[in-house]
């Protein structure tokens, strides 16, 4: 029975991760810690567990693993504290906001002999998994180019504060696609050119649109749009779409299209009723199994670091208006 704790409910994904732990018969959500006591106590009550306001007491409460869903810039400190306590770690994406912090997190867990995972639940979406299997089987031959989007709603709050988030939409919505492409194609990124800016009028000074042109090993060209362009009235938070152009054919995937269109006059807005797989449960299930089996999570800290490298290079490119090597 994996004894799991959640460190901070600052990130909205914490809700789904906590619910996923509670759905597993081989895990127990032992405790919640948060540096915002009211937020933490409310979350603990919602998920039928206890709130521990002292971090040392939380880390010493019989836990075996923790899910870190704090503000981005706090991932390093909380990971180092958890690793020092001998706990497995699943960190929300991005793994960190700087190369230095990402390396430090990996080293802290390696030195402590604990597993470090990165929260990339999109790997557990059935349509993504199906396309990856076709790519691995060579159905489309060599892949020449990929076009991708990750357009979402502006989350508000600390996401719009650079001192807490580390960046805007380019930071928030590039890492998912970077990770998927590495995993699906078995290639690394070698360079990026990025232009971004505050174009959508969101309530932040940070970039709310990023346009990236990337190259992967072997010459595969990738174009990607990362944005906070979805209106508040949009039926869901956003999208992940990909189109692969290959030697033998073309394949498109719309990751969140397992849905029904719902028109409800009580809310006076269209809604999407999602009927597909549960990627959050897939992510958390692997983490729980990694704790029970004392192995690395399937999506490692190194995976998170490679996606972080892409994002950091993209911001360097946007500042310099030059292509940057990764």
Structure keywords:
six-stranded parallel beta sheet, alpha/beta, 36% helix, Rossmann fold, seven-stranded mixed beta sheet, globular, Dihydrodipicolinate Reductase, domain 2, 326 residues, 2 domains, 15 strands, single chain
The total beta strand count reads 15
Structural class: alpha/beta
Largest sheet: 7 strands, mixed
**H and E order:** EHEHEHEHEHEHEHHEEEEEEEHHE
Proportion of beta-strand residues: 25-35%
- Stretches where pLDDT falls below 50 for ≥5 residues? none
Radius of gyration: 19 Å
Give the strand order of the largest sheet, numbering strands 1, 2, ... along the chain.
12-11-7-10-9-8-15
The first-to-last residue Cα distance is 41 Å
Let me know the CATH homologous superfamily of the largest domain.
Answer: Dihydrodipicolinate Reductase, domain 2
Shape: globular
Structurally, the number of domains stands at 2
The CATH class label of the largest domain is Alpha Beta
The pLDDT mean sits at: 96
Portion of residues within helices: 25-40%
CATH topology of the largest domain: Dihydrodipicolinate Reductase, domain 2
The total of helices stands at 10
CATH architecture of the largest domain: 2-Layer Sandwich
């Amino acid at each position: 029975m994996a004894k799991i704790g959640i460190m901070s409910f600052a990130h909205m994904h914490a809700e789904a991760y906590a619910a996923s732990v509670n759905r597993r018969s081989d895990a127990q959500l032992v405790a919640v810690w948060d540096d915002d006591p009211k937020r933490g106590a409310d979350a603990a009550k919602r998920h039928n567990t206890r709130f521990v306001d002292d971090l040392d007491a939380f880390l010493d409460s019989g836990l075996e693993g923790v899910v870190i869903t704090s503000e981005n810039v706090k991932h390093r400190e909380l990971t180092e504290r958890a690793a020092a306590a001998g706990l497995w770690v699943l960190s929300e994406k991005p793994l960190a906001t700087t190369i230095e912090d990402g390396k430090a997190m990996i080293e802290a867990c390696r030195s402590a002999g604990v597993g470090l995972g990165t929260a990339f639940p999109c790997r557990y979406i059935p349509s993504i998994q199906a396309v990856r299997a076709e790519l691995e089987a060579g159905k489309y031959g060599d892949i020449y180019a990929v076009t991708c989007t990750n357009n979402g709603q502006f989350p508000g709050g600390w996401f719009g504060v650079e001192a807490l988030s580390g960046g805007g939409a380019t930071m928030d919505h590039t890492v998912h696609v970077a990770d998927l492409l590495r995993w699906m194609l078995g290639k690394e990124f070698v360079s990026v050119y990025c232009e971004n800016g505050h174009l959508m009028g969101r309530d932040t000074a940070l970039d709310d649109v990023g346009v990236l042109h990337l190259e992967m090993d072997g010459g595969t060209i990738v174009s990607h749009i990362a944005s906070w362009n979805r209106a508040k009235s949009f039926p869901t938070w956003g999208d992940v779409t990909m189109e692969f152009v290959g030697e033998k054919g073309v394949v498109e995937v719309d990751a969140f299209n397992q849905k029904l269109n719902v028109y409800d006059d009580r809310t006076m807005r269209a809604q999407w009723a999602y009927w597909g797989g549960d990627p959050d449960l897939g992510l958390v299930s692997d983490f729980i199994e990694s704790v029970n089996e004392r192995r690395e999570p399937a999506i490692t800290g190194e995976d998170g670091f490679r996606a972080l490298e892409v994002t950091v290079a993209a911001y360097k490119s946007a500042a310099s208006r030059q292509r940057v090597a990764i």
